[in-house]
Amino acid sequence: MRSTSGSPSHGTAMSAASVVLLGTGSPRPSPDRAQPAQLVEFGADRFLVDCGDGVTTQLQRAGYDPAGVTKLFITHLHWDHVLGYAPLVWGGWSLGRRSLEVWGPPGTRRMHETLFEDLYRPDVEWIRQYGYPRSGIDDIKVREVGEGRIYDRDGVRVDAVRVSHPVITYAYRFSSGGATIVFSGDTAECDELVRCAHGADLLVQDACACRSRLYDDARSKRIRDALIGFHASPEQAGRMAQRAGVGRLVCTHLLPGADEDEVHAEATSAYRGEVVVGRDLMRLDV
User: Fold this and answer.
1) Catalytic residue among 50, 53, 80, 201
2) Whether the Cβ atoms of residue 188 and residue 232 lie closer than 8 Å to each other
3) How many CB atoms neighbour CB 70 within 10 A?
4) How far apart are alpha carbons 106 and 98 in whole angstroms?
5) Sheet of strand 202-206, all strands in order from the earlier edge strand to the far edge
6) How far apart are CA 162 and CA 240, in angstroms?
7) Catalytic site includes residue 80
8) pLDDT in 10s for each residue of the chain, 286 residues
9) Residue 149: phi, psi to the nearest 5?
10) How far apart are CA 80 and CA 82, in angstroms?
11) Are 101 and 72 in contact (CB under 8 A)?
12) Which of 82, 90, 152, 256 is 20 to 30 A off residue 53, Cα-Cα?
């Protein structure tokens, strides 16, 4: 990793690959952490992974034009990972985006059609009378995926591996030009994630269920015990990263009030490599 700056370095020499953490939070609202979303770049190719609430604004804060995001990969359909989908579609289209491709688990097409064939159809037709074209809104390509290779173009490959969560959830492994980046999605500790992340340069990992002052009282400890059934703790994130032999680990999907020092200490107790506690708009060069 060559940089962990807060914004992209437009106009300067680019690394082989980079990730911008647009949202490092959770379902619980926080002024400091938006809901889950990440932008991965391989040269001029950009891919959005998940689209939690506020993702369109976060793209702009990070210095990106939402109209330039034309490829979206959704790990799963829990609301905190897709609540920003409609604003992303609307915002990019209104700014000039003329194509969009979406990959996601079963149910992704139904989500899209419910929003843009049913709920927002009158709005689409009303806006079009002012000169907006159908391209970029009526021809969005939605692909529901399974495990295996789901993308292979221009030297960029994406593989999907199902991980452990109450709904169908995929970790995505992006590879290009010798750089490999894995996004875990939401998952408990599992062998499938270790397999997906094997040898990756960077693992962006759900580490929601941390041991911290968030869970001091009996009720909160019960909540953590429930979370650990379908989310990883930082220690478990570290253990999976260590088993997979990844180059660097990024802990994300953090609850409001999570102590970053505690998250870091817990992850490093199980992983001997570099641990980064993710923050919104952090850039990670590979």
Assistant:
1) 80
2) yes
3) 18
4) 25
5) 148-153, 156-162, 170-176, 179-183, 202-206, 248-252, 274-277
6) 15
7) yes
8) 344 554 444 434 456 899 999 999 999 899 999 999 999 999 999 999 999 999 999 999 999 999 999 999 999 999 999 999 999 999 999 999 999 999 999 999 999 999 999 999 999 999 988 888 999 999 999 999 999 999 999 999 999 999 999 999 999 999 999 999 999 999 999 999 999 999 999 999 999 987 766 656 777 677 777 777 899 999 999 999 999 999 999 999 998 888 999 999 999 999 999 999 999 999 999 9
9) -75, 120
10) 6
11) yes
12) 152
Beta bridge partners of 174: 158, 181
The two three-digit tokens of residue 88, written as one number = 């992303």
Residue position matching structure tokens 């019960």 = 222
User: Which tokens sit at 87?
Assistant: 């604003």
Which amino acid, one-letter code, is at 125? E
What letter represents residue 128's amino acid?
R
Q: Please count the residues of the chain.
A: 286
